[in-house]
Write a structure and sequence with these properties.
Layout: H1 2-14, E1 19-23, H2 48-51, H3 54-59, H4 61-77, H5 82-87, E2 93-97, H6 103-107, E3 112-114, E4 117-124, E5 130-132, E6 150-154, H7 165-175, E7 178-182, E8 201-205, E9 218-220, H8 224-240
Parallel strand pairs: 1-2, 1-7, 2-3, 7-8, 8-9
Antiparallel strand pairs: 4-5, 4-6
The structure holds nicotinamide-adenine-dinucleotide.
Nicotinamide-adenine-dinucleotide binds next to loops.
């Protein structure tokens, strides 16, 4: 683990005071939640890119909801792993996540930007009203009291991010002393573009090389639950010995 050692040495040298953590599906892989890309994560014979779109929902809302109910059932049973828990311990941190599973909140992180929404919220397609929806629906697809369909309150391929979310994330990435990039393939834009906003120390944790590995100062080839805790210990330790 030479790359992990080198990243920890850099943290001790630079002693970062502020951190932004950008996470993707890989940070939740160690909680048993399938990623979109990489191994596993197949659902019937569909590709996520063919189901997570407004066009797919308009064509077949029942099929799309069945897929979301399957994902929601997996996430409901899952628990935050050592990576989520370690991230929640970093002082002065903003978590910018592409994930829709809510595990950063459940791990105790307080300042979180959910770029792609949340699986446990619905939105009325007519009134645009949002509601928490933790439990499984009795009948699919679910409907609003107004009679219109409810959709998951997530950002589908081709849709815009929540107003202001990317701008706030971009400002924070620019200003942060340290950027941690954990478990993202770096191919979903605009989220992946955030990495290029950061000029200082950046550390990626991902067992595979990603599209943004070469943009980071260090690419630690390891699982999130394994490499995040020692990185976080180094951040806390470096602050204590400033
Ligand atoms: P992705 O599926 O495109 O890529 C996952 C990345 O995680 C890959 O690079 C893979 O090598 C890496 N990875 C796999 N196991 C890992 C581990 N144990 N530790 C660290 N990294 C690991 O995911 P993405 O980049 O987040 O982008 C795709 C979209 O997928 C996002 O918009 C997101 O909303 C959605 N998504 C979210 C969830 C979730 O909320 N948990 C799950 C699947 C997909």
């Amino acid at each position: 683990m030479e790359d992990l050692k080198a990243a920890i040495t850099a943290i001790h040298r630079e002693r970062p005071l502020s951190t932004v953590v950008l996470t993707g599906a890989g940070v939740s892989a160690d909680s048993g939640i399938p990623t979109f890309r990489g191994e596993g994560g197949l659902w019937r014979n569909y590709r996520p890119e063919d189901l997570a779109t407004a066009a797919a929902f308009a064509r077949d809302p029942l099929l799309v909801w069945e897929w979301y109910e399957w994902r929601r059932s997996i996430v409901r049973e899952a628990k935050p792993n050592a990576a989520h828990l370690a991230i929640a311990r970093i002082p002065n941190t903003l978590v910018v996540t592409q994930n829709v599973d809510g595990l950063h909140q459940r791990a105790g992180s307080k300042d979180i930007i959910e770029l792609h929404g949340n699986l446990f919220r619905t939105r009325c397609v007519r009134e645009e009203t949002r509601r928490d929806a933790l439990d499984a629906f009795g009948t699919l697809p679910p409907h609003c009291q107004c009679g219109a369909l409810l959709r998951p309150d997530v950002v589908w391929f081709g849709e815009l991010l929540p107003v202001g979310a990317f701008e706030r994330a971009g400002r924070a990435v620019r200003a942060a002393d340290l950027l941690l990039v954990i478990g993202t393939s770096g191919v979903v834009f605009p989220a992946a573009g955030l990495v290029s906003f950061h000029e200082g120390l950046s550390i990626e944790i991902n067992p595979q090389l990603s599209a943004i590995s070469s943009a980071c100062t260090f690419a630690v080839a390891a699982n999130a639950a394994e490499a995040t805790p020692p990185i976080v210990e180094a951040i806390i330790d470096a602050r204590t010995h400033r």
